[in-house]
Request: fold
Amino acid sequence: MKIGIAGLGAIGLHVAQELDRGGIPGCELAGISARNADRAAEANATLATPVPVYALNEIADHCDIIIETLPPQLFMDLAVPVIDAGKELVVLSASQLMGQQALLDKAAQTGAKILIPSGAILGLDAIKGAAVGNLVSVVIETRKPVAGLAKAPYVIDNNIDLSNLTEAKLVLGGAVTDVAKVFPANVNVAVAVSLAGYGTDKTRMEVWADPALEKNQHTVRVVSDSSDFTMTIQNRPTEENPATGKITALSVIAMLRQKTSVLQVGT
Ligand SMILES: NC(=O)C1=CN([C@@H]2O[C@H](COP(=O)(O)OP(=O)(O)OC[C@H]3O[C@@H](n4cnc5c(N)ncnc54)[C@H](O)[C@@H]3O)[C@@H](O)[C@H]2O)C=CC1
Ligand SMILES: O=C([O-])CC(=O)C(=O)O
Reply:
């Protein structure tokens, strides 16, 4: 399988390097898209076998699977041509899939597939299983170190004082659909959880500023007619982007390895 990677930052570069060293059987890195020629050359310089550089609207012509690890505002510039070409799109900026039913409808016509890896979250398998029965409630509670939230536009615009916190403070709670409108930078994992089961209107999200934390922490609480479960993950940040957990790139690598594995584990 020919793999393309669009965006070579905290996630994309790690996946590119793993492909380059032959760590994903059956998959070869066939092309990259970067912000500009210099960034592409920098990325290629870290690879044993440099690869062609393509524009976001060209890369699908040269690859079977295109991995989107872009700044979220560029998502559609890549997604539309990949879906039009009927290829597989691996989406990390999951928040950008909200309200994009037209993109899914187009994929159904062209034969394209949209894959959301587990990324920085856990338990999507269990939520998918429970959703085959009846979900009663799904809540994702995201707790971030105070510094990770203090500069968010919502916090500044609403004069929410996060200085000198001695205990965790609920900054905002509500349906994922509504939280996404004011916290667009923090909802990839919440949208992934929602799309696994209960949808963005019924899945509830809480965003907490927690002075006791040094890492982002996500807790998912599910009540259903088959099982009740609570799962927590604390993500060690990448050196490149403190907002992105190291496990995210590893999750993409695991997803690609699963494509050719005779043993499939999990839903
Ligand atoms: N689903 C999940 O669990 C997670 C999703 N994310 C999301 O994944 C996405 C990527 O995250 P990171 O790798 O941390 O971001 P990053 O900012 O480290 O990397 C983005 C890369 O895209 C490049 N870029 C900018 N303009 C470009 C263009 N026109 N064409 C091609 N490349 C361009 C940048 O130079 C940068 O190297 C973000 O939307 C982030 O929110 C992040 C963490 C977890
Ligand atoms: O915890 C992380 O690594 C990323 C995160 O909150 C998100 O993208 O929603």
Summary: Residues 247-260 form the longest helix (14 residues). The radius of gyration is 19 Å. The chain has a mean pLDDT of 96.
